[in-house]
Write a structure and sequence with these properties.
The structure is a homohexamer. Chain A is α+β, with helices and mostly antiparallel strands. Chain A has helices at residues 78-81, 86-100, 105-108, 126-147, 178-183, 212-238, and strands at residues 15-19, 27-33, 36-45, 59-66, 112-121, 160-168, 171-174, 186-193, 198-205. In chain A, strand 1 (15-19) and strand 2 (27-33) form a beta hairpin.
Amino acid sequence: MTRSHHRTAAQIRPVKITRRYIKHADGSVLIECGDTKVICTASISEQIPPFLKGQGQGWLTAEYGMLPGSTHSRMQREAAKGKQTGRTMEIQRLIGRALRAAVDLKKLGERTIQIDCDVIQADGGTRTASITGAFVALHDAIQKLLDQKLIEATPIIDHVAAISVGIFEGTPVLDLDYVEDSACDTDMNVVMTGRLHLIEVQGTAEGNAFSRAELNTMLDMAQQGIEELIAIQRNVLTQP
Amino acid sequence: MTRSHHRTAAQIRPVKITRRYIKHADGSVLIECGDTKVICTASISEQIPPFLKGQGQGWLTAEYGMLPGSTHSRMQREAAKGKQTGRTMEIQRLIGRALRAAVDLKKLGERTIQIDCDVIQADGGTRTASITGAFVALHDAIQKLLDQKLIEATPIIDHVAAISVGIFEGTPVLDLDYVEDSACDTDMNVVMTGRLHLIEVQGTAEGNAFSRAELNTMLDMAQQGIEELIAIQRNVLTQP
Amino acid sequence: MTRSHHRTAAQIRPVKITRRYIKHADGSVLIECGDTKVICTASISEQIPPFLKGQGQGWLTAEYGMLPGSTHSRMQREAAKGKQTGRTMEIQRLIGRALRAAVDLKKLGERTIQIDCDVIQADGGTRTASITGAFVALHDAIQKLLDQKLIEATPIIDHVAAISVGIFEGTPVLDLDYVEDSACDTDMNVVMTGRLHLIEVQGTAEGNAFSRAELNTMLDMAQQGIEELIAIQRNVLTQP
Amino acid sequence: MTRSHHRTAAQIRPVKITRRYIKHADGSVLIECGDTKVICTASISEQIPPFLKGQGQGWLTAEYGMLPGSTHSRMQREAAKGKQTGRTMEIQRLIGRALRAAVDLKKLGERTIQIDCDVIQADGGTRTASITGAFVALHDAIQKLLDQKLIEATPIIDHVAAISVGIFEGTPVLDLDYVEDSACDTDMNVVMTGRLHLIEVQGTAEGNAFSRAELNTMLDMAQQGIEELIAIQRNVLTQP
Amino acid sequence: MTRSHHRTAAQIRPVKITRRYIKHADGSVLIECGDTKVICTASISEQIPPFLKGQGQGWLTAEYGMLPGSTHSRMQREAAKGKQTGRTMEIQRLIGRALRAAVDLKKLGERTIQIDCDVIQADGGTRTASITGAFVALHDAIQKLLDQKLIEATPIIDHVAAISVGIFEGTPVLDLDYVEDSACDTDMNVVMTGRLHLIEVQGTAEGNAFSRAELNTMLDMAQQGIEELIAIQRNVLTQP
Amino acid sequence: MTRSHHRTAAQIRPVKITRRYIKHADGSVLIECGDTKVICTASISEQIPPFLKGQGQGWLTAEYGMLPGSTHSRMQREAAKGKQTGRTMEIQRLIGRALRAAVDLKKLGERTIQIDCDVIQADGGTRTASITGAFVALHDAIQKLLDQKLIEATPIIDHVAAISVGIFEGTPVLDLDYVEDSACDTDMNVVMTGRLHLIEVQGTAEGNAFSRAELNTMLDMAQQGIEELIAIQRNVLTQP
């Protein structure tokens, strides 16, 4: 098996996170995982949704989109069609849940952090790259709140990062690119914290059902990948 | 811990599947899992979606809805709002994927089976009840194709059933009702085949992240529950 | 002429009303008129629409839907299409007007009763079954307000029930089933009070225009049917 | 009781029908009933809806709208809101049914006549004025088909006209204007043919339920009004 | 070149403005420019959009529509399609901007003037006719505010009128009708004030790009046409 | 007056065009005009819209969007709202018209080029940057058709570029950034060809109406800016 970027089955693609990529947003990064490129922004607003009024806590929500030209063959623009697809909704709900797990919403105060993840080039793993990148954008937006003394202590509980893993032609492989993702039997997305606890496990048999043993192998691989991603996040955040 | 229906942590709720519940549909059941009640219908149409034209295979797709009066406080009617929520889309995509894993689409021929799962009373676990019930409706629709000699051999590969499992106040519990579901730390939906292979695993930390050990306990419990559900499916299908 | 359920031209189908069918709703029934089955719920909310603010009165409104699998050939799900059809809108407006005629909105206080009528099996006469069934659900929701001492006297003025009548192959027939409805020349829906006054008369010539004499025969038949339906409502409401 | 245009209870408002009001449409009129003014156009297209393909017959359908400035206080533009109200849908379905009753669709051939009724000034009775006016526009569109020898014999079976009637402060009144319509107890729209058979009867108790005797008085009045309207249609159609 | 209405290249079509055309609106006109006919209404509401709250100024906004039967071949009803086309949006934004330039919004007070321009017959130049006509409707609505002493001084700064100009088969022509508009190389819409300053210039090369010299010729022609239109506005406004 | 990037009134911002920015699209660039950054892609499809079937020509159309995080304060995602704003529609229609003027659609053959312009960072002049950048993406997509020998000769007639110009505090200024654009009296967008003919002129008085003399000064400035932009396009296209 030959993998893109000369990888072994258990290796992730080269990752690059560029902070402060968009000048207006409170936090923003470009994350590149191989040929997958996502712009993640975090925008603070001093409002909270009606269902949280008066509960002394904040909120975090996420939206996801793909540029029409980002995919192998051009995809239709959701704004022009007038609705988001089920896939988009599913992904943005996942991103929101994953990042809320990283934040103590009580400590955030009565404000909302809006995460936007927009894929500018897609080559597999856009939802996991979105989560890994958005964590850094979130961190920078929260740092801004700290710098402005709007909050006293950081509401961030732990790092959050995500990776995909699958079974491709019988072999478990980490961090699938588009070609692998389209052809694999099982596809799993795993989200973990810096302490390596699980936040989300979403495994789907596309072709053949999978066994508990296969599930365990995939989870081991995913944990390894997430450890690497969190090290990359930590490294990029040490820079001023 | 006192559970509804006097259950232990590892017990499922009483399940009742009524076949041929709606007279027009090709297959239809009412599935009752405790107080959760879902009407599942399977409708055959001799058409396939454009992207499958000429590939000599069929298709199976699913839609999900809740009656406005089915929930604890009335929910808005999606038809009146003019769009389905992200939750609805996520669930109907899950039901479709789960049941497609039960069917050899090549053997189905160039036709579509449309699954509809409509919740008439909701008390937790509506998506897993939908999958477990819809499998029986699917079976009956396919039996009709066989009876009409439109297909020669059944395209059904294996049973499919689903159950939820979670961690509620630190304890792993099987088949959560609404109260448990609203308060649990981790919520996982598991879909398995008759051979007890995995089709879907969707675990979400609502409060605290969960460990691999907890994941394993939950999967063990889920497997036990699914074995029971498949026995119930088998039993109801032995009746003429 | 042979009619379903061995009926004469002037006979209604067997009717069965099951109260407290859905556990969460303030009032709920399953009404079965022959093979037509509708779940009717009444939900109370302590809000009123903006146009009634400060007028010291309540409101009642209704929505109607059909499960996709309820009809002879599966109908498209309105929530998925993103809009309600004209037929649906027409029917839910009719149900709302009919039931508002049964209630003194001043005595209801500043709250809204939301009626939902969802057809789970359709065999003609779904709109009239909805009205007849929803009256009982409405009664039970209002009884709950009385029990909770939120209102002192019942705002219900009179019973309301509805029936269809038509001219089928030259003969006036009461309570048309789907086959008769599809083939009849004239189709009329009549809504009356317990005192046998008219609330709505909606007669439509599908094929041939009809005479005043035919109109009168149909109204006589409808009145007879409604007397029976109101007796059934009264009977079911005597039970605790 | 003082009525607009110095009318007695049983008199209709002054009616004026101007033919060929819009130069592009195949048939078009401006109908004025007192202060209610509606532009009715009939447009022929050589296509039929899919459900009628290959059945050797035509179709007629209608749409209805109100200019935002046509009403007492400006109403929202439906095109801007992105959907038609239930009232609009109900009215355009009524107009379509009424005019289809005037036409033998077999004789029309495989083509569609699209009726558009757009209210430019509203003062009660817009739906009945639409029907009465649209019949003349329909006639002229069909005359064009005859002149072009696209059809040999007219598919028009009979005249169709419509009027409202109601009970206002206890008195039956014909052809209600906006003030009467807003305040009346019962409101009925009646559509009849040239032979004075009924096509539609839609009576609604807005306040008090009405008796069979009141219904009969209203129908007598309506018949009288429709006779007058049909005489006006006949007169305007004698002009070249 | 033969032009409709026996015009030379630099002549506008005959213009007729009928004031108080719709009885309910605060201001209303029918403007006829040759065969193009537009109903323009101005409706006052004592509300302002949220983004202007508390800024001590008013607002003016415009909507535009075409009756389905107004065009050469029937156009689809935007309300039925559920959305306005890009062309409609573009035109109504232009009308709004043009008329806001005529009004000192500070002097208007915290209220909104809603302009509606509805084309009942289209023969080219509907957007420019809308602006020219809507100015007169706006004037009459503001006069009503003055008469009711709701404002003390008129917020109208200057007249506003608009005309189209183009290059048709190499020749610059003023006030294009539909046939000319469909076939011209360049199409320009010009909006000017009574003092002959420019408010909008929108020139588009449909076929060949145009030179600065051609632009200047077109602007000269447009100015001439607008002078005439403003004289017509002034004349119609001298009448009581 | 101090301008961003130390510019004089008649200077454009630094421009950088990066070709082949997105790997899947047939042509793609990142254009940066000061802090305004737009990704432009051109995608070829071997289909044409229905209204062009059988006419032996191709089509070019454009869509435009802004990432939610691209603007000073986060803007709502159009895909989530379910519709594009009027501003978006207006801009994408402009981009489409401008680029169609650059192409001989007959020579393109029966295929469509879809242009997508997505703003990733907005600082004024996004629509003009889109046009200037999209021309280069269009060029590269057409080169691909030539390389694949799908067409024999280039259908590109001439370069197309665009710039904004305005009157800011009484002074004409070229290439307005966001701050200038928000505060200027007049705002004009000019699109020209390589031969310096005009394709579009869109001038709008935001505050004060402008004179012919001011219009001329602005057009002179715009021409100068466009000459520079076309030189930059030419230069970047000389690279392989």
